[in-house]
Design brief:
With about 375 residues, the protein is of the alpha/beta class. It contains 14 helices and 14 strands. It comes from Rhodonellum psychrophilum GCM71 = DSM 17998.
């Protein structure tokens, strides 16, 4: 029997990501994992999909209703316009609660206020500090994030440190709900040999190749090291960019740029068989790539930020390096000289996935928020 079968079925619209079952980033994963679980609990879930990404548009997948909404297809307007039209559509529908991701959609809360629809927003990271959003972009994200705290009924942050940030900057309380993880204990080492790799024969970076993930810093420190291991960089960006071209132009036979990897088994193997995983993400709370590294049993080397300190329990499940190529070089030297210590990190990393990172627990927390908002 479903959790809410004795009540009128709760109808929740989820929007602001790319759609379902499209899984690329953290928001898409959140909607997939939570949407499927909510559906099994008897909630009517409607996920708004970016129309241009779906050549085939089935109305229902795995019990989840899908709504396909176009956007203004330019680099700067595509996602924002899609979110605006999606929120407008949801406001005119019979859903009970609207759940929005991404603080960039903060200003669109005026629509939900006007139509009287209960709302929650997951504001995610500190977008206004990211190097790619210089000038107007940074000012927009700061303004939009502040508006999100005023226009939405419930603000969701994904970590204690992010909750503190929203209190400090906007005097805005929030509900902490982390992202979930799907740990894996096994992988097929043959999947990494497709890239000419051997188990524990490489360091790993996973993430978008943007300045705030600090791949350049890690690569610069790595090429100065004497390690015979490789550095595998998984990720890219979907457009031409001078920053990425400069990274790929660095001449060192130990560097391997794989681009995007969409095969989940291959990505799992790359995590699981790595000697160590480098996490250079600078801004944000609970990071999905870090959760994968914990869940796949990696030895984690992370940039020293308060968010990474929280996720790794202040050094219990990883080592930290400061923001300099010298610090990267030093932590590589330490790792090369301490293989037994890295073995210990690998054997205990999954212990870092406490209950708050369990998808069932995450879903239950969101369900409580949605029930409390329903009028």
């Amino acid at each position: 029997m479903s959790d809410i079968s004795k009540e009128k079925k709760l109808k929740v619209a989820m929007l602001g990501a790319k759609g379902y079952p499209y899984v690329y980033g953290g928001y898409d994963t959140l909607m997939k994992e939570m949407g499927e679980r909510l559906n099994r609990k008897g909630v009517e879930v409607r996920i708004y999909c970016h129309s241009s990404l779906f050549p085939v548009k089935p109305p229902v997948v795995n019990g989840i209703k899908l709504v396909y909404i176009p956007g203004i297809e330019t680099k700067s307007l595509s996602q924002l316009s899609h979110s605006f039209f999606s929120i407008l559509h949801a406001c005119l529908s019979d859903v009970d609660v609207i759940f929005v991701v991404n603080s960039a959609n903060g200003p669109f809360g005026f629509l939900t206020k006007f139509f009287g629809k209960p709302t929650a927003i997951n504001v995610d990271g500190l977008e206004w500090l990211r190097p790619k959003w210089k000038g107007f972009g940074a000012k927009y994200f700061l303004w939009a994030s502040k508006l999100a705290t005023k226009l939405y009924d419930r603000v969701i942050t994904d970590s204690v440190e992010m909750q503190k940030t929203y209190l400090e900057l906007f005097d805005a309380p929030s509900t902490i709900i982390a992202y979930g993880a799907n740990p894996a204990h096994d992988s097929n080492p043959e999947r990494i040999r497709n890239w000419g790799l051997e188990p524990q024969g490489y360091y790993l970076i996973v993430g978008r190749l943007v300045p705030d993930n600090n791949a350049d810093l890690i690569i610069e420190g790595f090429v100065q090291s004497k390690t015979k291991r490789k550095l595998v960089i998984v990720g890219d960006i979907p457009y031409t960019d001078a920053y990425v071209e400069e990274l790929k132009a660095i001449e060192d036979d130990r560097l391997l740029f794989t681009g995007y990897i969409t095969d989940p088994e291959e990505l799992t193997a790359l995590y699981h068989q790595s000697f160590a995983y480098f996490h250079g993400h600078e801004y944000g709370g609970t990071n999905p790539a870090m959760l994968k590294a914990l869940g796949y049993g990696c030895a984690i080397l992370a940039l020293n930020t308060r968010f990474n300190q929280e996720m790794l329990q202040n050094g219990k499940h990883g080592w930290y390096f400061e923001k300099s190529h010298t610090a990267v070089l030093e932590i590589i030297d330490r790792a090369e000289q301490s293989p037994m210590e890295l073995d210990t990190l690998r054997s205990t990393s999954r212990d870092g996935l406490t209950q708050k990172y369990n998808w069932d627990y995450v879903t239950d927390q969101y369900l409580e928020v949605f029930k409390s908002l329903k009028k």
